[in-house]
Design brief:
Layout (H helix, E strand, L loop, with lengths): L2 E4 L26 E10 L2 E4 L7 E3 L3 E9 L11 E2 L4 E9 L5 H17 L5 E6 L5 H5 L5 E4 L11 E6 L2 E4 L13 E5 L3 E6 L5 H18 L3 E6 L8 H10 L23 E8 L2 E9 L12 E5 L5 E5 L5 H17 L8 E5 L5 H4 L21 H6 L1 H7 L8 E8 L2 E4 L7 E3 L3 E10 L2 E10 L5 H17 L5 E6 L5 H5 L5 E4 L18 E7 L7 E5 L11 E6 L2 E6 L5 H8 L6 E5 L32 E8 L2 E7 L12 E5 L3 E6 L5 H17 L9 E6 L5 H4 L16 H11 L16 H7 L6 H4 L21 H8 L3 H5 L3 H10 L4
Parallel strand pairs: 4-9, 7-8, 9-11, 13-14, 18-19, 22-26, 24-25, 26-28, 30-31, 35-36
Antiparallel strand pairs: 1-16, 2-3, 2-5, 2-6, 5-7, 8-19, 10-11, 10-12, 12-13, 15-16, 15-17, 17-18, 20-21, 20-23, 23-24, 25-36, 27-28, 27-29, 29-30, 32-33, 32-34, 34-35
């Protein structure tokens, strides 16, 4: 276990501060009101930023941002100051520009502590650095943030270069090719034309946002023309536009390299927990545990650091920690980051015991607050009710009351065998099943497809079950709902369609019936019954031994025609009623502690079993939404906090984590490759979760405009016609270019051509000619040394070979090799 001692040199700011005074800039804050305020460090003082400048930052400055909202609600630049008696959630961020002076950053840091003291030390403190902002910080600015050079103000200069990456627009020091990468979008502002340069690996969402920013620029700067420029196709612009572009970015000096950015770090190291102790004027940080971390690992007398490596560092301050530890927690965490030699941009967040934000709680497998509210019971859950009340459907994960029709197939090697109706609900742990559920909403007929995989099923049949699921889905025309369930993690609705009588026996069905139709079941068995309602109940076969008993559950013992229902001392009346459904008409109810002596003889004698009461009243985890995209050879995901329906982009695949299930939302315009990669990334996401997630949770694929209420209910507002007038980027661009066409008529636009040869050519990463002419052992690893020509831009290809790639591809192989040798690309 690692032990670190923080020294004088490990701190950015080692001076003593007086935190008892309150800056006049903070005195006007209403502590009991929602609010969103920004201050800038000017002349070593705190100055309030005008509202019309919210979202504009300078790279040479430091800022303090205060966001206060009702607990769990969004906040931002449009938040209205309103007094409330509700429970408030406070966040203080200090944002440091990439070129800010240490004196400014030091003032921002200690003034943040001063503001926190004024707010009774309950706020969460965040250290933000330019280009590495947290999703929460970016969520405050719906239109994104602008990072300008020191001499720039809101009114843009006559000419300039701006890089758009996600929600961040950054002004470059000057207009030059040296700042260009194929992953991003750039706006080149000139007195006459706004150029929108589209990196070949840039994201669709960013392209749409770039148009909005360009139109805003045109309005502010009174510019009347916009021109789209495709990465590698600059020379296809119309002559007068190309000449204007060439003035600012000479085409003969063009040099654009691909940039491999990973939005989500794959397989990050396990989270580590450190305890912080100050003794003899030395601050010692001692490693005490490697994740997963439990809430019980935190003692409210102490301070802890939770280290997620490059993903960020959290410092948790117990409620009984002294004032000095509370004030210096973020400073000490910064010292820890320096001692560990992590990048200066590493995110650091300080949280206070009893006021932890949701982002912190998700690090833990379970979290419980003192006022955890039990889930309300459900009285009506027919399909119409759930469609009309999606919030209830999301909370209960019920689509209807389960009264629809069922078709069930058992997978037997590479074929499927339909199970007769009288045996529906009898599953075996060594088998795989495909379940088709059909129900109606008014006059509309809907289908759901489930794939249930037994815990002891062989891989061959697991693969065949997945293939059969796809096959049935295609036969039905693509029903829009496909769920993969692994034994033990069945969803509420799956249990509901069996009316709370799903029974899972050991072994394979074929062990009891050679036809494979599961016409038989064991004659003697012991079932452990889980749940207390039709949508939470199932029974699982366990060993016929008294050691299988557990005082929290009910069990059903079957011996020939006789059944016994054993009721644990901590089980409820509802649990007993559900257990009776598995016992048949002839059964004997036995209460724990009141068993007859001969009862345990049926189980091989009385032996010890679990009698400890179990409590599972943890806080429910809120859903998390991730936008997944395949870009520049890397697939990653970006979390969207306080998400809305508009965040579901048809060109992408989205992942919604509801804790109990993973929904994979498939946009209509997403690629087949992105759909495949998202399913793979979902597993990586679960594997890397610091909370130590169960990899067997249900995976549900749904299609755009076929979303079930169990998915819709996680969104605050849902409009079924939301996508009716949706405009793709291609359509937006087409509309603009119809007014002001700036391309030669015979030149294909990158990514919008119907020419299959060109589109295949465009999928390869592009490099400048001088790099491609390097010896093979010095080439970047992503370049195919046998096909260097594929890594040329369109313009370079035409310039070298005097033809398009489509024409080149038609040439005989020997001719291609000869031309490549002449170009020094062989």
């Amino acid at each position: 276990m690692q032990v670190l001692e923080l020294q004088h040199d490990d701190y950015d700011d080692t001076s003593n501060r007086d935190f008892d005074s309150v800056d006049t800039a903070f005195r006007k804050i209403n502590k009991n009101a929602t609010n969103f305020l920004i201050w800038k460090i000017e002349n070593m003082n705190v100055a309030a930023l005008p509202k019309d400048q919210y979202g504009i930052f300078h790279s040479t400055d430091s800022y303090i941002i205060y966001a206060c909202s009702l607990k769990g609600q969004p906040c931002g630049s449009d938040t209205v100051t309103r007094a409330t008696k509700g429970c408030l959630e406070r966040h203080i961020h200090f944002w440091l520009g990439s070129e800010t002076h240490p004196d400014k950053s030091g003032i921002a840091a200690y003034k943040t502590v001063e503001l926190d003291n004024f707010l009774n030390n309950h706020a969460t403190q965040h250290r933000e650095t330019e280009g590495f902002e947290t999703p929460r910080f970016l969520s405050y600015f719906q239109k994104g943030i602008k990072i300008l050079n020191p001499e720039s103000i809101d009114d843009y200069p006559l000419s300039g270069l701006y890089r758009l990456r996600g929600k961040i627009i950054k002004e470059m020091p000057r207009i030059s090719w040296e700042f260009f990468t194929s992953s991003d979008i750039y706006l080149i502002k000139t007195p006459d034309i706004i150029f929108v340069w589209l990196g070949r690996a840039s994201d669709t969402v960013d392209k749409v946002r770039a148009v909005a920013v360009a139109e805003d620029l045109m309005e502010k700067c009174k510019t009347t023309s916009m021109a789209f420029v495709d990465d590698g196709y600059e020379k296809t612009l119309k002559n007068h536009v190309k000449m204007e572009f060439d003035k600012y970015l000479p085409l003969e000096k063009r040099s654009v390299l691909p940039e491999n950015r990973e939005i989500y770090k794959k397989n990050p190291p396990a989270i580590k927990l450190y305890k912080c102790v100050e003794t003899n004027a030395k601050y010692r940080v001692s490693e005490i545990k490697t994740g997963p971390i439990n809430q019980q690992d935190l003692d409210y007398n102490d301070v802890y650091i939770l280290d997620q490596d490059s993903l960020g560092v959290w410092v948790w301050v117990g409620r009984r920690a002294n004032d000095k530890e509370r004030r210096e927690a973020l400073r000490n965490a910064r010292g820890f980051v320096k001692k560990k030699k992590y990048p200066a941009c590493t995110r650091i967040t300080r949280v206070v015991d009893g006021h932890e934000p949701q982002e912190f709680k998700t690090i833990f497998s379970h979290w419980k607050t003192e006022n955890t509210v039990a889930k309300p019971s459900v009285s009506k859950y027919d399909a119409v009710a759930m469609e009309n009340r999606p919030n209830m459907a999301a909370e209960t994960q019920l689509i209807d009351d389960g009264t629809g029709s069922l078709t069930i197939w058992r997978v037997n090697r590479n074929e499927i065998i339909e199970i007769p109706k009288e045996k529906h609900g009898n599953f075996f742990s060594g088998d795989c099943y495909v379940v088709l559920y059909t129900y109606r909403i008014n006059t509309e007929r809907k289908h759901l497809l489930y794939c249930w995989l037994g815990a002891r099923a062989v891989q061959e049949e697991i693969d065949n079950a997945t293939a059969k699921l796809t096959e049935i889905d295609e036969d039905l025309g693509g029903i829009g709902f496909r769920a993969r369930l692994i034994q033990g993690r069945e969803t509420s609705h799956f249990l509901q369609i069996f009316k709370g009588k799903l029974t899972i026996f050991k072994g394979r069905g074929i062990d009891f019936d050679e036809s494979g139709r599961n016409l038989k079941q064991p004659s003697q068995y012991l079932l452990q019954v889980y749940g207390s309602s039709t949508y939470s109940c199932k029974a699982v076969q366990v060993s016929v031994k008294a050691s299988s008993f557990n005082s929290n559950f009910c069990f059903v013992l079957k011996r020939s025609k006789k059944s016994f229902v054993w009721s644990g001392g901590y089980s409820t009346g509802d649990q007993r009623e559900m257990a009776k459904g598995f016992a048949g008409p002839d059964f004997e109810l036995i209460l724990e502690g009141k068993e007859r002596e001969d009862f345990f003889n049926l189980l091989g004698g009385k032996v010890p079993y679990s009698t400890q009461i179990s409590k599972l009243d943890f806080d429910p985890k809120p859903a998390r939404l991730f936008r997944c995209s395949y870009s520049n050879g890397e697939f990653g995901a970006e979390e969207i906090v306080f998400f809305k329906q508009r965040d579901l982009v048809p060109e992408h695949v989205m992942l919604l984590d509801t804790d109990a299930s993973i929904y994979i939302w498939i946009g209509k315009l997403s690629s087949r490759e992105e759909r495949r990669l998202c399913a793979e990334w979902a597993i990586e996401y679960l594997q890397s979760d610091p909370a130590g997630r169960d990899l067997n949770i249900s995976m549900i694929q749904i299609k755009q405009e076929q979303e079930p209420p169990t998915f819709i209910g996680f969104f605050p507002i849902w409009d079924k016609n939301h996508w009716a007038n949706y405009k793709t980027f291609s359509k937006i661009r087409q509309d603009i270019e119809m007014v002001s066409p700036n391309r030669e008529g015979n030149a294909p636009a990158n990514g919008s051509t119907n020419n299959e040869g060109e589109s295949e050519f465009d999928r390869y990463e592009k490099y400048p000619l001088n790099i491609l002419k390097e010896p093979n052992d010095k080439l970047p690893p992503r370049i195919d040394p046998l096909n260097k020509e594929l890594h040329l831009t369109h313009d370079d290809f035409v310039s070298i070979f005097r033809m398009s790639y489509k024409d080149f591809e038609k040439l005989p192989r020997w001719k291609q090799q000869e031309m490549k040798k002449k170009a020094a690309l062989f």
